[in-house]
Amino acid sequence: KYARDFVWSDSHATRITLAVATETMPPLPGPPASAFLSAGAETIKNYPHLFPVITPIKKFAFRNYLSTHPNRPLVDSVLRGLNEGFWPWADPDEPDRPITYDGSHRPIKDSRHMQFIRDQRDAEIALGRFSPSFGTELLPGMSSIPIGVVPKPHLDKLRLVVDHSAQPHAPNALIPREKVSVPLDNLHNLGQTLRDLRAKHGGAKLIVFKSDVSQAYRRLPMHPLWQLKQIITIDGQRHVDHCNNFGNRGAGGIWGVFMGLVTWIAIRRERIEGLGSYAKMLRLWDILGVPHEEPKQLFGEQLTIIGFEVDPNAMTITMPTQSRHDLLEATRDFRMGQRLPLRSFQRMAGWINWSLNVYP
C-alpha cells in the first residue's frame, strides 16, 4: 500500500502532478561562470557554425501561453534554454579532468550494428541535430564519448546508445543525481483521474488514450558549452551532438520540466479536463511545435500504459497476459543454476519489482 502507491481512497491526499509542481519548482540553471572562461568557450568562439541551438518548439507561442504562469523564474529559465540551449545541472570544474578527452574507443563488431549507426548519423545530420564531420581531431575543450547499439525492448528494432556514464571522465559524473529529478505523473495520477471522471460522469463509457511526442528528448537543444561534452565519433570522423540526449543524466529532468509546462498550459489555459480531450491536446501540441506521429497516438477502451493494462471501465490496472507469461518463463529459466553476472540479477530483480506494482 505505502511502497507501491497503487491504493486510492477518498481520504488520501491526491499526489501532486507535474503540471502543478511547475508552480513551485526552482529555475533551471545556466552554465556556471567558469565554463565561459574555459578552452571550450574559445573553441565555440572560433567555430560557431559547429554549435547551433536548434529546436522545433515555437518559442513565441510557448511564451505567450505561459504569460500567466505564477512561477516566472522557472518559465524564464526554460525560455532561456530554448533560445540558448539547456545546461544539465553540471559542475564542469572536476579535478584532474583533462581539457580535451577522447573516450570514444569502443569497437562495434557487428556489421549490422555499424550500418545502423551510420544510418542514424546520416539522419541526425539531415535533421541538423549532428554537425557534419569537422575532421578526425578533437578541438580544445571537447570530450568524445563511446556509442553502442542495443535492441529496443519487445521490438525487432535497434537503438543508438550514447554512453554518458562511461568511465573515466564521464559527462554524467559532473551532474549531481539529486538535482535532476522531477515528480513525473504515474499510474496513481491516472487512477485518480479515472476515479474523478467516473464520479462526475457515472456509468458513461470511458476511452483512454496516450500520446507520444516524436523523438521527445531530441527536440530540446543543449547549450554549446555542453555540446562540447557530447562529441560523437563514427568511422573516425567527429560530429557535435547539438541536442538533449537520452544517455545524459540530466536529460529526463530537462524534458520533464519542459513537458510539465506544456501540460500546465493544457490544464490551466486550454481547460482540458483530466487531459481527456484527445484531439484538443494534439492541436495544442501543433500550436506549440511539439512534434507527434500518428502511429504513436493510441486509444481504446483498454490500453497498455508503461507496461500495464489499463481498463477505465472495469477500473482495473494489471499486467498484459503475454507480459505475465514472459516474466514467469524468465523466472523459471533463471533458476536453472547457471553462473550469471551481477547485472543479470539486477535486471531480474527490476523486472520482478515492476510486476509487484499490480501483484503486491
Automatic annotation (TrEMBL):
SUPFAM superfamilies found in the cross-reference section: DNA/RNA polymerases
Which protein, by its recorded name, is this? Reverse transcriptase domain-containing protein
